[in-house]
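#structure-requests
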Amino acid sequence: MPTIYDLKPKFQCILRPLTQTLARVGVTPNQVTMAALLVSVITGVLIALKWDENWPLLLLPLILFVRMTLNAIDGMLAREHGMKTKFGGILNELGDVISDIALYLPFGLIQGIPTILVALIVLLSVIAEMTGILGIKMCGARRYDGPMGKSDRAFLFGALGFVLGWGIKPSWWVKLVLELAIILLVLTIFNRARNSLNTEN
């Protein structure tokens, strides 16, 4: 299924000159990964501590874009500049999952947003990424199938944060959006598992 992840090659082309500069000055993929993780955790803590204020939510779209940029750069540094390591692979996968948890779980603290739905989205997100990683064992390739991959979740919560940050109160529409996200996450898990099993090594 189509996903925002499909735009990644074009985004990488834009970032390639910056990535080459970072490689020349000695920046490593792991440093970039840790920077993305740190930014995500700090933002998540701010949202959790200031759940009744708007400004952390208004920051979220920018932070998610920065995280997406850093995630693209660390992968390009690893693959295109001979810095790929097993530890880096582990750090990258764990960093993505921890960042998701840190950024999205605090939404459950906001008054008017069903905590159980947010928690379920975070849980399903972890399962979806685990299923994607299992593709390496099943078919020799990490699965990024949608329709609710990492980039799609970032867009969803970034848009949600932007709307709420402008003072629009959560009501029935938030519940509807979160329920739709849950359905799409279940479909994502199914697609990744199915395609892993149907693809030959």
